[in-house]
Design goal:
By secondary structure, this protein is an alpha/beta fold. The protein has 14 helices and twelve strands. The radius of gyration is 23 Å and the shape is globular.
C-alpha cells in the first residue's frame, strides 16, 4: 500500500509539473491568408491603409524577404505543415493524390500539429470568423489523420493548456473573379470599413495594362480584400487580448502565395512567391526588421522551437529566430502541375538575382488552365492582346514559347522585365545560380525531376472531371480539351 501511495504521489507531482510547464509555454497562432502578396502599409503599399498588420509590425518583427517554396495552395500547404519542400515529399503537383492513386509521407514523418499534440498542446484549425463544427482549409496533397486537430477552436482546451491554432482566411480570394464579385466586395468594404478602394487610385505593375478597366477594377477589389484581411487580423488579436492570452501567444501572419494573376499565383516571379511574414509575441523584439532570405516552411521549425519542442532532424525548415541561425544565401521555389495544366519550373532567388529554369520552354506561359482562363482579368488580357493594345513587355505573357532560362537583376529590375540570361556580362552569375539549382534539386531529392506517372495524372483528372461536371458542366468540353492538349504535348516530347 505505501508503494502504491508513493507511486500515486509521484504521478500527481508529474502531472502537476507537466501542467505548470504547459501553462508557461506560449500559445502559437498561425494566420494564413490565401492569394495575397505583400500589399500592406508596412510593406510600402500607399494606396490603402492596413492598421492592424502595421501594428503587428510595430510590436514584432517584419521579414522583408520571405518567399514561398510553391506558388499555389495545396503544394504550399503540404510544405509548411511538414516543414519540408513539397518536391522532397512528392506533394509538388497541385491537388494531387485526390483520386484512387494516393500520396503517402515517408514512414515516421509527423505533421506539425501532431508534434504539438504529442507535446501536450491543444490543436485547432478554423476559418474566420470561426464557424462551429467547420474546420479551416487544409488542402494537403497526401494522406493524413484528421485527429491531429483536436477541434475547430481552442476554446474547449483544458484549463491552462497551451494551444496551437491555425486560422485560415480567404485573403485575395475575397475579391472573386468577375465584375459582379468586384462590386460585392466594394459593398462589403463600405459596410465593414466605411469605404472602398477607387479604381482611380489604382496603379498596376508595368507588365499589366493601366488602361484596362477590368484589370483596374480587379486590382481595386484585391486591395479591398487586403483591407478586409487586415480587419480580420485585428479581430483575431482582439479576441486573444480579451481572453488574456495575447501576451503569451506567438502570432504569425503569412500568406500562402502571391496574388492570383497572370504573373502571380502559379508562377515564380516575385508577384507569385514573395509574401509578407510578420511575427509578434514573447521574445520578439518590437519594431525589428529582418532583410535576410527566409522560406515559408520556416514557420514550422520556429513554432516548434518557441514551444520547446524538438525539431525533427529530417525537417528542412529552419528556426530563423534562433540565436545561432545562419542566414541563407538563396531560397528555392518550384511550380509543377496546377490542376490539369502540366508545367515544370524551378527558381533560385538570392539577395540580388533571380534565376528561373523553364524545363518545358516550348510551351507558352499562359497555357490552357480552366481555373485561370475563366477569370475576368485573363479574359480581358487575352482580348487586349488580340486587339494589339498591349506593350511588348505586356504581350510577353502570350508568347508561344519561353526562354529556357531567365535571369533578373532584382536590385535594378524589381519587376523582372529584362531577361539577362543571354548577356555575356552576366555569364558568371548565370553559371553560379544554375549550379545552385542543380545542387538543390539533387540534395533535396526533388521528385519533380521525373514526369508525373500517367496513372497519377489520370487518377487526379478523373476527380476533377467529376467536379467540373457537377459545378461547371458548361466548361466540361474546355477542361477535357485542356487535358488532351497536355497529353499531346507530352507525347510530342514538349
Amino acid at each position: 500500500m505505501p508503494r502504491i501511495l508513493l507511486r500515486l504521489a509521484l504521478l500527481s507531482f508529474a502531472i502537476s509539473a507537466w501542467s505548470h510547464a504547459a501553462a508557461s509555454r506560449p500559445n502559437i497562432v498561425w494566420i494564413i491568408a490565401d492569394d495575397m502578396s505583400a500589399h500592406f502599409g508596412a510593406y510600402g503599399e500607399s494606396t490603402i491603409e492596413t492598421p492592424h498588420l502595421d501594428a503587428m509590425v510595430e510590436r514584432g518583427v517584419k521579414f522583408t524577404r520571405a518567399f514561398v517554396t510553391a506558388p499555389v495552395c495545396s503544394t504550399n500547404r503540404s510544405a509548411f505543415i511538414t516543414g519540408m519542400y513539397q518536391t522532397s515529399i512528392g506533394a509538388h503537383h497541385h491537388r494531387s493524390g485526390r483520386g484512387p492513386e494516393k500520396i503517402h509521407l515517408p514512414a515516421g514523418m509527423k505533421l506539425v500539429p501532431k508534434l504539438f499534440q504529442d507535446a501536450g498542446y491543444y490543436t485547432s484549425i478554423s476559418g474566420w470568423p470561426v464557424v462551429p463544427g467547420r474546420k479551416g482549409k487544409t488542402d494537403y496533397n497526401f494522406e493524413w489523420d484528421q485527429s491531429i486537430y483536436d477541434a475547430v477552436d481552442w476554446s474547449s482546451r483544458a484549463d491552462g493548456q497551451p494551444f496551437f491554432a491555425q486560422i485560415q482566411t480567404q485573403g485575395g480570394k475575397l475579391r472573386g473573379s468577375s465584375s459582379d464579385q468586384y462590386a460585392k466586395i466594394a459593398q462589403r468594404a463600405d459596410e465593414t470599413l466605411g469605404s472602398h478602394t477607387s479604381v482611380d487610385d489604382v496603379t498596376l505593375p508595368p507588365y499589366y495594362s493601366n488602361d484596362n478597366a477590368v484589370l483596374r477594377q480587379d486590382w481595386a477589389a484585391y486591395l479591398d480584400s487586403v483591407r478586409l484581411t487586415d480587419h480580420m487580423i485585428g479581430q483575431v488579436l482582439a479576441r486573444l487580448e480579451a481572453e488574456g492570452e495575447l501576451d503569451n501567444t506567438l502570432v504569425i501572419f503569412m500568406t500562402d502565395h502571391g496574388i492570383s494573376h497572370a504573373r502571380g499565383k502559379q508562377f515564380l516571379y516575385e508577384e507569385g512567391i514573395h509574401v509578407p511574414l510578420v511575427i509578434q509575441g514573447p521574445g520578439i523584439a518590437a519594431g525589428s526588421v529582418r532583410e535576410d532570405l527566409v522560406e515559408h516552411i520556416d514557420i514550422a521549425a520556429l513554432s516548434l522551437a518557441a514551444a520547446s519542442i524538438t525539431i525533427p532532424d529530417t525537417m528542412q525548415a529552419q528556426d530563423i529566430l534562433a540565436a545561432n541561425y545562419s542566414a541563407r544565401d538563396a531560397v528555392f521555389s518550384a511550380r509543377d502541375r496546377c490542376d490539369e495544366t502540366v508545367d515544370h519550373l524551378r527558381a533560385v532567388r538570392s539577395e540580388q538575382f533571380k534565376y528561373i529554369r523553364n524545363y518545358l520552354s516550348e510551351r507558352p506561359h499562359l497555357m490552357p488552365n480552366l481555373y485561370k482562363d475563366k477569370k475576368a482579368i485573363i479574359i480581358a488580357l487575352r482580348a487586349a492582346h488580340a486587339a494589339g493594345t498591349l506593350t511588348p513587355v505586356q504581350a510577353q505573357l502570350f508568347a508561344p514559347t519561353r526562354a529556357p532560362e531567365e535571369l533578373y537583376d532584382l536590385a535594378n529590375d524589381p519587376f523582372e522585365l529584362v531577361n539577362l540570361a543571354a548577356k555575356p556580362e552576366f555569364a558568371a552569375v548565370l553559371q553560379k545560380m544554375r549550379g545552385q539549382l542543380k545542387t538543390w534539386e539533387v540534395e533535396s531529392g526533388d521528385q519533380g525531376r521525373w514526369p508525373e506517372p500517367a496513372a497519377m495524372y489520370d487518377s487526379d483528372m478523373a476527380v476533377q472531371i467529376k467536379t467540373v461536371k457537377s459545378r461547371q458542366p458548361e466548361q466540361l468540353e474546355v477542361f477535357l480539351a485542356n487535358v488532351a492538349q497536355m497529353k499531346k504535348w507530352a507525347a510530342e516530347g514538349n
